[in-house]
């Protein structure tokens, strides 16, 4: 009798752990399954890199195979996903102020480069946070370098999938 109970408790525990693990979405799965091919939206301000992430209305087209983002002017930006473990501690601290806004989204950090493919934290131009909601129908991309403008302006794109 005790053995049956013990086995039942172990089976239940295993089921809970398995379900919890299945509930976690990997960044690769988010990009593959939720990130749409293009989004049309708006940012009040341009990014530090200027020509690639522009102010005003824009359509951003994602090539998930080549890890590129192309804006409506044809400017290509290369990106790589930064794993949660590799996000610098100062960026993690900075992102805490966005906890409420990012809650309920599938979000991840990318490093971008306007010239070279496969940017890294060492070679890339800057970091951005990408947040998808409503199964990827809505996107927000915001610049994590927010200290370059005296007025505190930074790129903060919100868009809807096309």
TrEMBL record:
The UniProt keyword set, sorted, is: Signal
PROSITE patterns, from UniProt?
Answer: PROKAR_LIPOPROTEIN
- What residue range is the signal peptide? 1-20
Q: What is this protein called?
A: Lipoprotein
Which organism is the protein's source? Streptococcus gallolyticus
